[in-house]
């Protein structure tokens, strides 16, 4: 791995939860009091779907029975959970892994530990935890699961950073570290730069001393989005239309051609960023928002020897040891605490207003990630 930890802090923070939580979302305390009352009766509210389909049609708010706490289990009050594109795909039934139905939506979020089983020693009540894998169903007020299904995070990092830590920053981090040996001053090109992965990649690359060339679609609020990405550390923000113009040659007189391209779109967008790769470079596909195949010119394979790879963070987590996941989360938390990694552009939505959040999350050109606040 080309990146060293920027500081040696571990994840054993036990400081009180910061008071900013109540000021950011004043109605949160009342909702938690009601949830705790329901949990005391062995039930919790959750967003459940009994069949696959469009999220707004099939998801409904229900009261579920909480399983009994086992010796190796953790019971956590969910604090916040985002709505990611993969969550929507799972509800639609188009994702590669699907839970048994009925299922609770959501695969990412942060919770506060309420109780632990007798064999649990790594966490205690008051600690914050995030899911270590997909499938927990985070769109709920409380969750009970095996201790290996959770990773501890500091409870003094911003709530929205913790809630959005387990998927997009991990995806960006692994792609930046695992496919090419990059050094400070090297460049990376990516499409979908305003996505959750794109925003994380901008910031992590900046922390590594890398330059980023960020491709976005033209839109009404183009300048506003450009300014926002540059405030995160983006070096260059270019529309897909400009990417195809001869002016790109002028850019590469100032910036080295990238050895790494990150593709979250597919189709023509993937082909275009691939064309700008350095000889022997790698394009890594982690998403396909265009729902079109990646087309690779024969000349790129023969004369530039480009490498075509794919990445799925869920598979990485399942094929690597828990301590390696903890190490990565620790590194990302160090970035957060150093002010080098912040949450993506977010909108907080009360849990009971989930329909508003789902509608916004499935609206085109919305850059703000919807976060359910419990």
Short structural summary:
This protein has helices spanning 20-24, 28-40, 55-58, 85-92, 159-163, 168-178, 196-207, 222-232, 240-243, 248-251, 267-275, 298-302, 313-319, 322-337, 354-361, and strands spanning 43-49, 59-65, 73-82, 103-104, 110-116, 128-131, 142-146, 150-153, 187-190, 211-216, 236-239, 260-263, 282-285, 307-310, 346-350, 369-373.
Describe the protein in words.
The protein is an alpha/beta fold. The chain is built from 15 helices and 16 strands. Strands 3, 5, 6, 7, 8, 15 and 16 form a seven-stranded mixed beta sheet that branches. Helix 12 links the parallel strand 13 and strand 14. Helix 6 crosses helix 7. The longest helix has 16 residues. The radius of gyration is 21 Å and the shape is globular. The N terminus is likely disordered.
Tell me about the largest β-sheet: 7 strands, mixed
Oligomeric status: single chain
Strand content: 15-25%
Number of β-strand runs: 16
Distance between the termini: 37 Å
- Model regions low in confidence, pLDDT < 50 over at least 5 residues: 1-31
| Helical percentage | 25-40%
What is the helix tally? 15
Structural class of the secondary elements?
A: alpha/beta
Mean pLDDT across every amino acid position: 88
How large is the radius of gyration? 21 Å
Report the principal-axis shape: globular
């Amino acid at each position: 791995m080309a990146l060293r930890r920027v500081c040696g802090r571990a994840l054993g923070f036990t400081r009180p939860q910061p008071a900013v939580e109540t000021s950011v979302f004043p109605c949160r305390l009342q909702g938690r009091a009601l949830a705790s009352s329901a949990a005391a009766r062995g039930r919790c509210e959750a967003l459940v779907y009994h069949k696959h389909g469009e999220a707004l049609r099939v998801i409904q708010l229900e009261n579920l029975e909480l399983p009994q706490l086992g010796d190796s289990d953790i019971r956590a009050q969910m604090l916040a959970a985002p709505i990611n594109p993969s969550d929507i795909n799972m509800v639609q039934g188009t994702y590669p892994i699907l839970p048994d139905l009925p299922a609770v939506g959501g695969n990412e979020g942060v919770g506060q530990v309420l109780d632990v089983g007798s064999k649990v020693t790594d966490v205690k009540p008051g600690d914050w935890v995030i899911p270590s894998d997909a499938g927990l169903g985070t769109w709920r007020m409380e969750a009970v699961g095996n201790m290996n299904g959770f990773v501890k995070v500091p409870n003094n990092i911003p709530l929205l950073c913790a809630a959005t830590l387990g998927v997009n920053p991990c995806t960006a981090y692994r792609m930046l570290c695992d496919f090419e040996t990059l050094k400070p001053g090297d460049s990376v090109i990516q499409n979908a730069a305003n996505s959750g992965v794109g925003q994380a990649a901008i910031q992590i690359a900046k922390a590594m001393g890398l330059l980023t060339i960020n491709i976005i679609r033209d839109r009404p609020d183009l300048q506003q989005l450009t300014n926002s990405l540059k405030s995160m550390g983006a070096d260059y923000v270019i529309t897909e239309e400009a990417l195809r113009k001869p002016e790109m040659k002028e850019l590469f007189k100032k910036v080295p051609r990238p050895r790494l391209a990150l593709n979250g779109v597919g189709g023509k967008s993937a082909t275009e960023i691939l064309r700008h790769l350095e000889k022997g470079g790698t394009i890594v596909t982690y998403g396909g928002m265009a729902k079109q195949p990646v087309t690779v010119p024969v000349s790129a394979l023969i004369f530039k020897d480009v490498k075509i790879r794919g990445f799925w963070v869920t598979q990485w987590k399942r094929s690597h040891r828990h301590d390696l996941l903890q190490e990565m989360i620790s590194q990302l938390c160090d970035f957060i605490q150093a002010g080098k990694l912040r949450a993506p552009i977010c909108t907080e939505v009360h849990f009971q207003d989930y329909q508003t959040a789902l509608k916004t999350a499935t609206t085109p050109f919305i850059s703000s990630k919807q976060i359910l606040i419990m």
